[in-house]
Prior knowledge:
Elements: H1 2-9, E1 26-27, E2 41-47, E3 55-56, E4 59-61, E5 64-68, E6 75-79, E7 85-90, E8 111-114, E9 117-121, E10 126-131, E11 137-142, E12 157-159, E13 162-165, E14 177-182, E15 188-193, H2 198-201, E16 220-221, E17 234-235, H3 248-251, E18 276-277, E19 282-286, E20 307-312, E21 318-323, E22 338-343, E23 346-352, E24 357-362, E25 368-373, E26 381-384, E27 391-393, E28 405-408, E29 422-424, E30 429-435, E31 437-443, E32 457-463, E33 470-476, E34 481-488, E35 497-499, E36 503-507, E37 512-517, E38 523-528, E39 534-535, E40 538-542, E41 545-552, H4 556-563, H5 575-578, E42 593-598
Parallel strand pairs: 1-35, 3-39
Antiparallel strand pairs: 2-42, 4-5, 5-6, 6-7, 8-9, 9-10, 10-11, 12-13, 13-14, 14-15, 16-17, 18-19, 19-20, 20-21, 22-23, 23-24, 24-25, 26-27, 28-31, 29-30, 30-33, 31-32, 33-34, 35-36, 36-37, 37-38, 40-41, 41-42
Bound molecules: pyrroloquinoline quinone.
The site of pyrroloquinoline quinone (PQQ) has 20 residues, from helix 4.
Amino acid sequence: AADQEAAIANANNWADPRGGYMNQAHSALAQVNKGNVKNLKAAWTFATGVNRGHEGSPVVVGNMMYVHTAFPNNVYALDLNDNQKIVWSYFPKQDPSVQAVLCCDNVSRGLGYGDGKIYLQQNDGNLVALDAKTGAKVWSVLVNDPKVGATNTNAPQVRKDKVLTGCSGAEFGVRCFLAAYNIKDGSLAWKAYSTGPDAEVLIGADFNKENPQYNALSVYQDVNGGNKQGGSFTALPNDQIKIGEKELGTRTWLKPQAVKDGWQHGGGSVWGWWPYDARTNLVYYGTGNPSVWNPDVRPGDNKWSMTVFARDLDTGVAKWGMQMTPHDEWDYDGINEVILFDKGGKTYAWHHDRNGFAYTWNAANGTLIAAEKVHPFVNWATGVDLKTGVPKKLASASTHQDYNAKGVCPAALGTKDQQPAAYSPKTGLIYTPLNHVCMTYEPVESKYVAGQPWVGATLTMFAGPDGVMGGFGAYDPMTNKKVWYNKEKFSAWGGALTTASNLVFYGTLDRWFKAVDAQSGKELWKFQVGSGVIGNAFTYGLKGKQYVGTLSGIGGWAGVAMNLGMTNPTDALGAAGGYAELTKYNAAPGGGALTVFSL
Ligand SMILES: O=C(O)c1cc(C(=O)O)c2c(n1)C(=O)C(=O)c1cc(C(=O)O)[nH]c1-2
C-alpha cells in the first residue's frame, strides 16, 4: 500500500511490526546514542488492563500509536500529540473458550498497517481491518476455526496490496498454511498449505529449480532400528538420495497415522514474521513442527513442515523451499522469522532456527551459503550439509515412544523462539535474543480428537551448560559465526531493535529493558519495568525527539506456567519447571503495560 510504503520510508514511524519489509527491525534514528543513552528516562507509560503475555510492539504512524493487547486482543489508538489520549478503541467479543486452544499463552504479536487501515488478527481466527482514523470495522474474515484447535497469534503483515496471516495449531493436529488477503476488501488472494498435495502447497514445476536436491524423498534411513528405544535414523549418502521428486507434502508421510494420512493433520504452523523483497516479489516465512510430537507414528521427512519457503506475493507459488529438520523428533519448529539483508549487490535470507542452527541463503534461489551452530551446546546434530541442507543427526539425541531421551540441547523451545532478531546495515551483524535451555523428551502415544490437545510427548527443561537459561548475541550472517555473546539469567524472550547510532535494545524476563553497544555488546543502560518483557523493542520520532519503547507483561511459552500458577515441572510442556524461578521476579499474572523512554 502506497501510504504504508511512504510511512515505512519515514524513520519517525514504526509502521510495520518489524520496522519494514525486510524485517530488519532497524531504525535510521540516531539521536539516542552511545554517549547519551545513559540519560534515557521513562517519558510515559500505558497500562493495557490485560494480565497475560504481551508480545510484539505497537505501530506508530505520524502522531498516532496503535497498541494491541493479549487476549481479548483489544486495540487502542493513542494521539501522541495530545498526551496519548485515546482517540478510539476496539474491544473484540471473542468466545473465552478460544483461550483453551492457544498452545503457548494468549499472545498476539501485533498489528499491521496500510491503505488507511489497521489490521488485527484475533486469537479466534477473525482477521479484521479497522479504519485507522475512526476504528470503524471496514471488513472482517474468518481465517481459522478454533473449534478444531486452529487459532492465530501472529501479527498480520501488509506487503504491497496483501495482508499476510497464518495459522497456529500444530499441538492440535491442524493442517496449517500461510494466507494472503487483498487489503481493499479482505477477499482471499491465495492460501498455501504446509503439507499435502503440490497443488495445495502451491508448488509449481520450477520449484527449487536451482537446488533439486531439496526435493528429496526421505533422506533418513532406518540403520539403527529407527523407531525403537536407542535407535536412530541416519541420513543416506548424498548419491543415494532421490532428488527432484514431486508431491513430497504427501509422500514423505510414510505411514498413515491414526487419522487419515498423517499430512492431513500435519501441523506446519505459521505464526512468525514474514519479510518481502519488492525487487523479486518474493515473500519468505518458516513453517512449524509436524503433528504429533511423537515421531514414531510419522516415519518419513514430513515435508513441508520445518521449512523456509520463498513465494511469489501475487500468486503464492513457491519459488524455493528447504526443510531444516526432516523428520522432527524434538519440536524444533522452523517458524522463526526470516530477515533479508543486502551485501555486495546480493540479497540474502537469514533464519535462526529453533534447532540451534542459523542459516543463510541466497534469497533469490535458495542456495544455502552458511549453516552453523549458534552455540556449542547444540547436541542433536554435528552440522548441516551445505549442499542438501540435511542435518547430520546424532543417535544420542534421537527420541522414541516410551523412551525418555535425556540431556537433549536445545530444548523444544529452541536456541531462539518467537523473539525476533534484528539486523544492522551499519555493522552488518545480526542481533539475536537467545534461549540456553536443554530438555528431557519422552514421546507418548496420543489419540487425535478434533479440538483437543494432540501433543504426544512429556518434557522437562533445565539450564544449559553455561548455567543460565538465556543470552543475547551478535552474529555475522555471512558465516553465522558468533561475534559477541552476553549471558542472561533467563531466556531473552523479547525482540531486538537496532539503531543507526549502533545501539541494540532488548528486554528480559526478569524485567530489564536494556541498551547495549552493537559493536562490543557492552551494556550501556537498563531500566526495570513492571513485568517480564516478551515484547519487541521499537522506536519512533516526534517533533524532533527520539522515543524508544517496549511492551512488558510476562507470558509466552516461557512465562505461561508461572502466570497460571502451575508448579508441576512438566506443566506447560516443561516450561513450569524450567522457568520456576520467574516467580521471584514477577507478579502472577503479570500485567501488560507499555513503557516509552526519551532523553
Ligand atoms: O505449533 C503451533 O501452532 C505453535 C503456536 C504457537 C503460538 O501460536 O504462539 C507457539 C508454538 N507452536 C511453539 O511451538 C512455541 O514454541 C511457541 C512459543 C510461543 C510464545 O508466544 O512464547 N508461541 C508458540
